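Section handout 9: paired folding examples.
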Amino acid sequence: MTFDRAFLVGLLAAAAFPALAQQLESFDLLQFAAPPGQREKISGGLQFTEVRGNSYCRMAVFNSLASSGDPVADFDREWANLAKGRGTTTPTPPAQTAKLPNGWIRSDATAEEQTASAGRYRYRLVTFTGNGRRTAAAGMFNDEALCGTRVDSFFAGLTPLQAVSATTGATAPPTAASNGFAFTTTNFDDGWTATEERVWVRAVNGNATVLIHHAQPDIRPFNNVDEATAHVWNLLVAPRYSNVANLWVRRSFWSDGGPFGAKHFAEGDLTDKATGKRVHVALHRAGNGLRWLEFIMPSRDSFYQRFGVVQPQDGTDWDRLSSVANCNRFAVAARDLPGKWKSSSGAAVEYVNIYTGNSMGMASASSTTEITFHPDGTYVSVYKGVDGANGVNRYVGETFRGTTTVDRWEMKLTNRFKGATDTFAVQFEAVKGGRILHMRRGTVEELHLFRLP
């Protein structure tokens, strides 16, 4: 189980304990004594995990981001982005703050939480605000006897460092997620710039900012589209703003695409807690399973001028809104590939007699492709498939071994079918905790792969 920043649920104060006499190391703007346990890089940070039976201790440090200049606002923003983005209903706990001699302000808090999958556990999170930056460290544990002293010692030994080049003010450019991938920013020809951040991709073009959220809140309990949209608004948008006015949650109509292609939309005028600026925010999702897009504009007029008027019923050009999701694209480097990647797909069709309505049987097909990229530039690709009708199946399989050459948006694999070299258009899509590797070879082959543990 990876301790991703999006796992953070809460905060509350804890007493300071003397740090153990260990060798110090640093990560981004934090210096610390590494706790015991397995070390691993995670999305935007470094994690240490120790497991003994059913007991576990997880501690992590994270990359810094631009600060609002207000420790309370920084705390609220971390809570809103990370905890509320997960859908938790735990109230935001108060944090104990203390001024540090090097110009930083420390906020420290702990909260208890319980879920069906993880049971009962504690989260502790410390944030540091200063020098135009904010940074954080977190702990998650379920055994006080095993973990309590270790967690206290780790957090007591945290020391924020002075940034080499500090950027002051809330308008500082966002910090890209440092997750080990070579490309975290893409500049598009049409003026959009996409930057991968921890819980979303931030797309900017002129006065328009769009957050392409990784979170996918569960809206299955809601029968009405507007109720589902309001639920997601309260989870993804509302916690980071205040003083809402002119809020409108649009109902969806059959002409928008039916229940599986529902057009979710809500908008309102709000105050950004982090900057204090008055902005117009719109939330949109175009269809089942697609990303939630948060549009941030100076005003409603500027939003409609840029993206078109959203009509109460028919007539909205939804493509102008939903097309921004295409900004979640990042180039691929050779160093990103080593490891196992897997793609799977399937389909089924049931045939019915048009005269009697009786079933005439079913046909189905499914396949998996697993590609192992090696650091030396070689690969092994294994394809397995099955198709059939009415219980009669046919099984196929193929294994290829060759070399890999990748140049940002293009990949060549040698020694494919009958020794041919295949050229794929490739791109990464950022998701929570990692990337999806998309590979397309015209209309012949299309793979959407995720990295295996």
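Moving on to protein 2 of 2.
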Amino acid sequence: MRGRLVNELVRRFSDHELTLYASAIAFRALVALIPLVLLALGLLGALGRKDTWRTSVAPAIKPRVTHPVFNAINASANKILSSGTAGLIAFAAALVIWYLAVSVSGVMRALNKVHEVEERRTVTRRAVVALGLAIAVGVCIIGAILLLVTSPGLEGALEVLLGIGRWLLLLFLLGLAVGLLVRFAPAEKPDTRWASVGSLLVIGVWIVATLLFRLWVTTVADFKTAIGSLTGLLLLSAYLFVSSAIFLVGAEVDELLRKETDGRGVALPDLLIGAVRR
């Protein structure tokens, strides 16, 4: 049965042309990275966490790039952190929401393919849904970024507890973003169950891909040469494509399981109960 499900998943992924959708979503996400970074820096400055750049982010960048490049990046970041205003934050937020809304529109079309439904919503309604999802997903992404780069500055057992809490909150934000897209992006809302297998697959594989990408950036990457910079850009593009493809594969998995279980789907409690019975 597992072999049949895998074959069906591969067939559906090909028939629905999800590779093209994953490429389009990844490209739009790549374009959104610049205002996203500006927004994150602006929020760090507004929240009084300018030390995060000096203690966490800048030291990780400095040995990977040439001194002129680092000086330019460092000067720009410090300028934003020290003089970032509400206007800058609002402008960056508007750009992020716009690019994310365009990306969400691609997700909407891809999920319509996955669920094999026709788009019958009006243009206005689709725009409103895309905008609302873009804002919600953007809040989750910015929150996740701030959780990753900020440090509570504590030591001992309290630091460990806060670190665990940060990762749990990070997983919650990622799960919330995935759940909102899966639930509200398609034209017909699937009768999904929270913490479905597809959502867990998306989050789990995305975490692994992110850790591998981070490992490459921190231990292998060298942006001091033209080849190194080009390789970094290619791998960043590949990472975004893999992330988009993972999301669409998770949606296909959920749709297949719903069909196999007559619309009930498979959620986390089902997996735990099955594991206990075995």
